[in-house]
Amino acid sequence: MTFRFEHETLGQRVRFASGTAREALAAEIESLGATRVMVIAGAAEADLATDITEGLPVAVRHDEVVMHVPVPVAERARAAAARHDVDLLVSVGGGSTTGLAKAVALTAGLPIIAVPTTYAGSEATNVWGLTEGAKKTTGVDARVLPRAIVYDASLMLTLPIELSVASGLNALAHCVDSLWAPRADPINAALAAEGIRALAAGLPRLVDDPADLAGREEALYGAYLSAVSFASAGSGLHHKICHVLGGRYDLPHAPTHAVVLPYVLALNAPAAPEADARIARAFDADTGLDGLQALRERLDAPRNLRDHGFEEDRIGDAVEAILPSVPETNPVTVTPENLERLLRGAWEGADPR
Q1: Which of 3, 104, 261, 277 is the most exposed place for a label (fewest CB within 10 A)?
Q2: Nearest of 93, 118, 95 to residue 43 by alpha carbon
Q3: How does residue 2 score in pLDDT terms, banded at 50, 70 and 90?
Q4: pLDDT per position as a tens digit, 73-114
Q5: What does the record list as coiled-coil region(s) (predicted)?
């Protein structure tokens, strides 16, 4: 086997320790010399954000967080940052919260410290996304990569199991997509495989016992690896599909990823045997799809798009919207016919096999 690839490693500090969010955040703020912090946290995380930022130099707290980061929401956050002359953004929450901080950083050039409360993984990528006029636009920019991440699994002990599962499967989708994304390479593959193993080990534990901190830690570790591999490999077919579904039809982010993933894997695996074998080994299963479906069954994962607001008569429109963004590197040639079958299967929750 001959190795030949280009790999970029993104630079950020990661502090991973349960029960230390307040101290770790204070240390990171001090290291950046910030004196006017903007804390971004939605209503659900407001009390948590207040607790872990107590005594810190907070200039403003911003709680208007909306899924898929609509442009008007981003503009109001940008205006708030400028009005209060902030010099640092602290995001406390899931992917939508991190995404809003990124939208501010994209135009203001402010550094971000991310404190995740889900397994979304956005905190470890330099990818931003904004939605305007039912269209979600994504891009890559060094300015939006958080300078530091504070991982504290104890912050996730109250995360509802349904959201924990959907968010964890979203992270797993990062791993799978990384194996055939445009910049896939052996380093991404190694990170992705370990991410799959950790998520497959951790998620069932937290389903069995939501207070199992060790299970939460393993899932969070896997989510971080998934994001790092995704950030380097780029966006594959799965994410192109889900970005259209989320932005165009306002579908919930994590459940959409959780539903669509097995159908993308079923489409691509026959044409990507090495990737499928790696996924299967990570799951300790005969095939990648066998392992994924067994895990989904164990977790009682979201089963179809119909339950999350996607209407059958939108399938044709979605096919037309997705096709122009399909990566040329996808293992299988994507056609209107096989893409429609994929979406119809996901809509009704049919067996992807």
Answers
A1: 3
A2: 93
A3: low
A4: 999 999 999 999 999 999 999 999 999 999 999 999 999 999
A5: none
